[in-house]
Amino acid sequence: MPFMKGRAPIRRTLQYLEGSKLALKEQVKVFSVNYNIYGDHHAGARDFVFWHLPQLQYKNPGVQMATFKNMTPTPFIRIYLDDGEEVLVDIDSKSRTEIFEHIKKIICKTESQLAEEAQEKEQNPANFGWGCNRQCICEIPGQVPCPGVVPLPKTMRGKYLRGEVFD
Amino acid sequence: MSCIILGHILGYNHKAQHTMHRDCANVIFHNYQSYPLTRIGGQTIKWRKTRWDPKAPSKIFRVTQRKKLPEDELREMTRLNNNYNTYMRAIRRHLHDSYLLTSATSEFALKEQEEIEAEHDRMMEYNRQENERVAKLREERIRNEHEADMERVKLSIVKKEEEKLIAKEEALKLIRDTQEIVKTFIRREDLQTAIESAIANPVDYNFAMDADGHIFRGRNTRPADVPEDEREKLEVTSG
């Protein structure tokens, strides 16, 4: 099987994308990064965009992510919230991990919030059907067994009730 | 009232059948609603009189009696009913209250909202301070870069000056040398005398050298002719 194309194609794997915990808060609508292609003090910004922007977009499909290159002498991130507030984050001479931690702290949902939401989304374990642990109610002990395995008694069968068949 | 159909389909889009009356002269066409099946396979038509249908002759003077329940039964029924209603009301109320607790306008939710906003403000404050810190570092860096640039410029100026001086020196040296050389030029007037002196004094470029580096100039010089003290030795240059 050939290698995946592109630089660091691991960024495009599901495991990598799912593994990030960068879920932005609901108020965030636009996330824009300004940085240069050259310059040592932009290195952190470049790395952050290269490694973490795909993760951010994957976890927040409703947020617009924009990058602007070679427009300003110093790099920065600007986050636009839905009540018109703009959050400016200066990332001059910061490393990739520093930027990551900072963003996570100020504008992402906390671990506890994420856990809560995951719990809420969990299905009622008593449900059965498609997408649940049990396919049919006949699997559950104490219920009527599957008529495909054990025929139903005549009192429960329509053809006897309606008088279509006499036995 | 359900009637079993024995008639045939007439005229209308929906099946309208006429009922089996004793006097078939007054046949009224009625619209039936649905066709459920009985146990023995016959169709039953759901039938109710409309508002304007007249009362049947057998029923005009009928006075219906209210059903009389024995007293103890009645008491028991009311008691059970009341209990049931009480329970159901209580359950419904309880569920409604718990719903109100978690609704968006409840105190709890409002408090949560306040907390979220406070948290947000704290984060913005933290971000602002972080920005200030980074701004200081940035200014520092820019200042250092600026100073480095100025240094570099100064050095380059000095270097340029030095180069200029050296070039000037070189030019002067060239002029001096040329002036020296110009002195040896032969002028047109002195050409004859120069030729005559050149012929009269031939220059002998021949020389010999021995293993020790002594140079013996002249075509006909022999090593023995030159005394040992006056021998020219080839200078050893390093490199």
Describe this structure in words.
The complex is a heterodimer of chains A (167) and B (239). In chain A, 30% of the residues lie in helices and 15% in strands. Chain A has 167 residues and is an alpha+beta fold. A four-stranded mixed sheet of chain A has the order 2-1-3-4, with helices on one face. In chain A, a hairpin with a 4-residue loop joins strand 3 and strand 4. Chain A is elongated. Chain B is rod-shaped and about 180 Å long. Mean pLDDT of chain B is 83; it is low at 1-21. Chain B contains three helices and three strands, in the order αααβββ. In chain B, strands 1-2-3 form a three-stranded antiparallel sheet, with no helix packed on it. With 239 residues, chain B is mainly alpha-helical. At the A-B interface, strand 4 and helix 3 of A face helix 2 of B.
In brief:
Chain B: Keywords: Coiled coil, Mitochondrion, Ribonucleoprotein, Ribosomal protein, Transit peptide. The complex is a heterodimer of chains A (167) and B (239). Chain A is of the alpha+beta class and 167 residues long.
Biggest sheet: strand arrangement of chain A = 2-1-3-4
Q: What's the average pLDDT of chain A?
A: 91
Give the strand order of the largest sheet of chain B, numbering strands 1, 2, ... along the chain. Answer: 1-2-3
Number of discrete helical segments of chain A: 5
Chain-averaged pLDDT of chain B:
83
Oligomeric nature of the chains: heterodimer
* SSE class of chain A: alpha+beta
Count of alpha/pi helices of chain B: 3
Number of strands of chain A: 4
Distance between the termini of chain B: 135 Å
Largest sheet of chain A: 4 strands, mixed
Kindly provide the radius of gyration of chain A, computed on alpha-carbon positions and rounded to a whole number of angstroms: 27 Å
Helix content of chain A: 25-40%
Q: Uncertain segments of chain B of ≥5 residues (pLDDT<50)? A: 1-21
SSE series of chain B: HHHEEE
Portion in strands of chain B: under 5%
Structural class of chain B: mainly alpha
Query: How far from one another are the termini of chain A?
Result: 64 Å
Tertiary shape of chain A: elongated
Give the biggest beta sheet of chain B: 3 strands, antiparallel
Uncertain runs of chain A are none
Keywords (chain A): Mitochondrion, Ribonucleoprotein, Ribosomal protein
Pfam family, one (chain A): L51_S25_CI-B8
Subcellular location (chain A): Mitochondrion
Organism (chain A): Meganyctiphanes norvegica
